[in-house]
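Hi everyone, sorry if this is the wrong subforum. Our group has a chain we'd like a structural model of before ordering constructs, and none of us has done structure prediction before. Sequence below.
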Amino acid sequence: MDLTWSAQDEQFRAEARNWLAANVPRQPLPSGDTAEGCAAHLAWERALHADRWSVVSWPKEYGVREASTWQ
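Answer:
Right subforum, don't worry. Here is the predicted structure as tokens:
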């Protein structure tokens, strides 16, 4: 069995790493049980969606990446 990453997989992985390095909040988000936390979590989900990192395996017609299971 060959478990070598394809060039496309490597590109996907690098893009994901770079996006996360630039966008993951430096401090943990507050609890979603608070108004502040709910707003922070909603903003994070919107950021994921805006850059197509939300539900990455869904079909492209939904505005996401249609990533493979391996990715």
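For your construct planning: Residues 7-23 form the longest helix (17 residues). The chain is about 45% helix and 0% strand.
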